[in-house]
Amino acid sequence: MPRQRRIVRIPSIPQLITGNVQSPTTVSAARTPLHPFEKKVEDVKPSKTDINLVIMDYLINEGFPSAAKKFASEANIAPTGDTESIQERVEIKNAIHAGDIQTAIEKINDLNPQILDTDTALHFSLLRLQLIELIRNCVAPTSSSSSSTTLNPPDITPALNFASTQLAPRAPTSPNFLTDLEQTMALLIFPSDNLSPTLAPLLDPQLRRDVAAAVNEAILTSQGWRRQARIRDLVRVRAWAEAKVRESGGGGGARDKLPERLGLGLDGEDGKEVGKEGNGEGEAMVT
Fold first, then answer.
1. Which of 8, 48, 160, 169 has the fewest CB atoms nearer than 10 Å to its CB?
2. How far is CA 15 from CA 152, 263, 283, in A?
3. Spatial distance between the Cα atoms of 93 and 103, rounded to a whole number of angstroms
4. CB of 267 within 8 A of CB of 47?
């Protein structure tokens, strides 16, 4: 039985500007009259080629080789980037997300050893994350009873050895490194279920994602690509432009020419994620 393709609705550029993305239920209802600014945006006819290139750039940058290949076929555009190098970035990112930092470091060095040699801050953040994973494994609760845990405290030797050989020699080279190391070692003192607001983020999965994103940007830079997808720059510029307009003028000034709320168009009016429900007006991306 052929595999059914999943269709993800991509909001059009006017929708991204005005946030005018509606679910099927809101489309059937009487539509609120558009603000004059929204009417002007609706009249803009962006190039479909430009939109497709922005989407392709995002898929390549964020590491979705399979989706990029399928989208290139559906949009009838030439795929950009080396699929093999994209897959290598994906494997590195997945290893970091899984907490397998040693594998990630080895793959980075296999790809380009100069990345970590020249970016000491990135290298330290990876080693620090590796130490955090060692500590996580050391203090992770086991099936033993609490009384048994008290009599037999966790073996923190692997974490101490790693910290003394890998991080301690690097810490004096930067005040930030020293602070980060001190905070990380504090995880060995306090129980993981009762950490201070300063220490709790160290065990949060978001730290893995942040480090993985920094590694992805470093690899892209080393390969001559943009550090971030173009759409991220577009969103930042759009937010900056809106803020400038709202700050300027007084009553009857420029800020009155904008709607009270000007969303990004990434969520429907009912708060549901675009792609799960949409009004069918955006371009379809096959993934």
1. 169
2. 60, 9, 11
3. 10
4. no
Counting every residue written for the chain, the total comes to 287
pLDDT in tens, 128-185: 999 999 999 887 655 444 444 455 677 889 999 999 999 999 999 999 999 999 999 9
Contacts of 95 (CB under 8 A, 6+ apart): 101, 103, 104, 107
pTM higher than 0.90 for the full model? no
With contact defined as beta carbons under 8 Å apart, do 4 and 285 qualify? Answer: no
In angstroms, how far is CA 144 from the centroid of its own chain? Answer: 37
Angstrom CA distances, 171 to 42, 57, 178, 232, stand at 55, 37, 5, 33
Q: What is the CA radius of gyration of the chain?
A: 24
Q: How far apart, in whole angstroms, are the C-alpha atoms of residue 24 and residue 22?
A: 7
Instruction: Tell me the Ramachandran region of residue 283: left when phi exceeds 0, alpha when psi lies from -120 to 50, beta otherwise.
Output: beta
Alpha carbons 217 and 211: distance in angstroms, whole number: 10
User: What's phi and psi for 195, nearest 5 deg?
Assistant: -90, 155
CB 223 within 8 A of CB 137: no
* Amino acid at the residue 121: A
| Distance of alpha carbon 74 from alpha carbon 286, whole angstroms | 7
